[in-house]
Amino acid sequence: MDDTATNPAATVPEVDSFAEQARRRAETEREAVGWAIDELETLIDARGVDLEPLLEYARRSRESLPDRYRRAYEAMADVFDVDAPVYEVYVFAYSELCEELAEGPEPCSEKNPKGCTNALVAESSVADGADAAGPLVFKNRDIAGRGLRPKSIVEQPPIDDYHGILTIDTCGTISMFKGVNDQGLVAANTYIDSESADVDPEDQLRNGTVIRTLLEECATVDAARAKLESHPTKHLMGQTLFLADETDAVLLEVDPAAERIAADEGPIATRTNHFVIAESTEARSSTKRRRRALELLDDLEPLTREDLWTIARDHEHGPGDNSICRHPEPEAGEYAMGQLTTASTAVFEGGTPTIEVAMGNPCEGERLRYSFGDAVPADLRTGRRWLEGMS
């Protein structure tokens, strides 16, 4: 990356619209996204990938977005000086692109039921005198192609009547797969291979859209559940959804194939990438990671924030595809296009608008903690810190 990057403000200014917020974020993350898109363009050309089917899926998926997110995407696209079709696929069809770019006989991607490990600890199971007072949630974010998916600390200020959001997520995108809002509501998910066969992409709410919407529009777990249940379940995507506020916590299995949302109210719950209450595909990695997480949660109860970091760093069955802290296997290639590996870790406390994160694998990355309004180092907002850690 160019070392002459513009140094962004340490704190995030107020904005009047989602488009303005998107433009400011794009200006901050311009270098990281430009580098990633240029590298992707080189790989696509070298392997002769036909983008048209991916672009068709991406364009149909855009139709499912709320207007404010569509405007945000368009505002970001206007800022980035990159190949427009590759950027569109990067935002809306990255996992499908990874399948096309993956090497080896058995590539995997975010679309397969093999990525992410999450846990939820209700207030009653948090240790007395611990470093937390409310419910706890942790998420290891496992993705395919992490080497071309730079991460940054993202703070979205309140806009009109929408809540502000604090998270760590992919530079240059509009989806959010975990975060906390300025009211202390926490939301995070794991992907599950379940969808309704008769729902088109235009009518299907993507998981990253659902989580961002809940954080922007809801202040409590009850409000988030009501908002989620206001949508026809068959129009959602399969996921386990972890919600926590100052006092309440719940894990929801969202099963669009069965048109059902089932609740696991804990007090301790963990999920990887298969349903436990409902039925779904269950991959070996998902089974091993969940069993190991259950062992650790049982051994460590009552739990602290530090205990969740211990679980996030665990290398049993690895380090590799079957461990909670997932590292690239030797055959994964330079950017791990064909394997899901841990790109970031986040630990949240319900009711507390603060995020604890590690970039890359939590066993290696520095543990960082920020709240709304804190001065965040520029290299964390731009994505540079993440890219340097991956190099």
TrEMBL record:
Alphabetically ordered keywords of this record: Transferase
Listed GO MF terms: transferase activity
InterPro entries assigned to the protein according to its UniProt record, in alphabetical order: C45_proenzyme-like, Peptidase_C45, Peptidase_C45_hydrolase
Cell division found in the keyword field: no
Keyword Cytoplasm in record: no
Protein's organism: Halopiger aswanensis
Region (Disordered): 1-25
Ranges of residues in domain Peptidase C45 hydrolase: 135-319
Listed Pfam families: AAT
UniProt superkingdom: Archaea
Protein name in the entry: Acyl-CoA:6-aminopenicillanic acid acyl transferase
